[in-house]
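the three lines:
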Amino acid sequence: MDVFFYIAVAIAIFSTIMAISRRNAIHALLYLILSLLAVSVVFYLLSAPFIAALEVIIYAGAIMVLFIFVVMMLNIGLEKSMEKKWLNPRMWIIPSLLAGILLVVLFLALSNVGSLTENKGDILPKQVGISLFSTYLLGVEIAGILLMAGVIGAYHLSSQNKKVTHRFLEKK
Amino acid sequence: MSSESLILFFIVGAVFVGAVLIFSSLVPPKSKNPQKSEAYECGIPTTGITWLQFNIGYYLFAILFLVFDVETVFVFPWAVVMKELGMIAFVEIIIFFVILGLGLLYAWKKHALIWE
Amino acid sequence: MGLEQYLLMRHELVLTLITLIILIAELCIKGDNSRKIRPFAIILFFIATVVGFLPLGEGSLFGGMFQTNGMILIMKNVLNIGVLIIFIQSYTWLGNEENKIKVSEFFLLMLSTLIGMDFMISSGDFLMFYIGLELATIPIASLAAYERTKTKSAEAGIKLILSSALSSGIMLYGISMLYGTTGSIYFSEVAKSLHSSNLQTLAFIFFFSGMAFKISIVPFHLWTADVYEGAPISVTSYLSVISKGAAVFIFVIMLFTVFRAMTAMWQDVLYITSVLTMTIGNLFAMRQKNLKRFLAFSSISQAGFIFLGMIGGNELGMTSVVYFMLIYIFSNLGAFGVVSAIANRTGKENRDDYDGLYLTNPKLSLLMMIALFSLAGIPPVAGFFGKFFLFTAAAKGGFYMLVLIGVLNTIISLYYYLLVVKAMFINKSETPIQYFKSDGYTRLGLIICFAGIVFTGLFSFVFEYIRVYAFGV
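prediction for all of em together
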């Protein structure tokens, strides 16, 4: 088991370093996704399968969508040939190789652990739910307020001003 | 749920997707010309680059999606323990929904959900 | 289990209620004109502030996640007063044509950050503390970018969110180390098992760095000037007073309770950073021409002075920190109020523009002078007593050298505060700012600040009242 843990951690650290050091934002994002997946495997190996699943749902799903939108909004303004260069196999071969290793690690770990419910150490959704809605009840509500403030703030930042006057009537 | 079935699930999924991809690359008739590799096959050569600045409206949709995605993190564990915890958790999640629902209503009222 | 125990979270509940009421009101308003919401929000918040002063017992809720006592109550009330003044001061600015479609957002975002700060101050474990901190930070970033068509405002927003994300990350790392070494995230449990091992020292340093970002302590102050300059004035005053105040409050509580066992270590850290902060803040403040930047650096150096009160670790220190924050709120908001009134009317924010202000706008210049004197700590005004007690607290802890450095820095700071006073009263200008009559709300905001500066300085019972609830290491 320990070996798997160290492999996943090594991938996480390596891909995070790569994500920080890439000049190209898209390549950095590729590594960032990998890093989040590796962290998710680490969570699984630390016997928190539910958190691992949430990690994938939240980070690998939603935040990636957001990040890519943000990157697309940056004015990268480069000539067409750059596209071919960016999609060069050299760029994606390492991340996909590492992702493959992660998958193998996950497989081996799954077959070693045996049945999920039999393993006493695992934190299952039920336990997460009980502690979330009894001990940390207050935190959930504050998170709700935070999410609401997030909606308001996001709308406020990204809404387009509707034109009230016709552009010919505007004062120059 | 035993992990053997999970592994089986993975393998069946991988094999199924792989088989479909290989099958579809073998079966159809092939035609190769430059037009074929364009992003849009509308007959006219595309101009400019695809790495354009996007409309900021996408961002708004994405972040609204994110907010309700994060909501699942709280709702899913609640659904699992709904029966055990009973009324307190129920009231709690209702408050949570009301707060977030007001946020959604706000976005609705501000026409954030309409593509302009 | 009765429902009345939840009254312990009265501040937070009332604020949440107000936020939801304003949100519903915004939903009910037809059309885009939400200017009507301003008086409504101010009155609601005024009620909340008054309700906050009702006496309340001590206790903890949710298994120790939420705790409150007399001191925490005072801290929340101090913050409430500050926010009330800011709301009143921003009334006119929110009425501007370009802001009319986003008035309620201003109130909603500010109130939700205030909820976060209140929860952060009353937190009993690191989880609550962190969620409160995030709630107090993230909406602020969108407020800093409030005038998003202006490049500087957008820049302020992005700088704030990036630097606060970084600082949160560092702080979380520290918290995770604390959890790793003590096995708990509850303050009381962590306090019991701290024993200054190397890893715990490192954890404290990380935690301190995160807090230092929020309080803008040198060397973590680099975001301050740009964000303060770019953000709208109301948001800048909020950042410099309320955000900073909340961070200072929770920091002093945590130093005195959670990190009690490491007192000798954090005294060293505070010593070095406070000297650096006072000196560097002062030196940079001298060079500023833009008054918002100037007030930003002056608020950095004020943060250094606040550390003087904490470092002794005695209950006099805690009293003087809270007392100083109260005075600082009035003085800084007074100064920002004048800058805001003038900028609203004329768009001028530079020191040179204030030349000859006394001849055209005597009342405004007098108020500005008093506010600056209070910030500098000149005897008749409240600021003097605030600084005096901070120095006394440090001296009581035996830090005489630090007090000397502090006094020297006060003298340096006098120079640049007086530069502004000189510009207003002595300098002559060909084109002074014309006389103008401010509207009722601006005046009300300024009068409250003026009354606060005079009142807190003249009557000692404010200090005594805070002192009753203070505690030391």
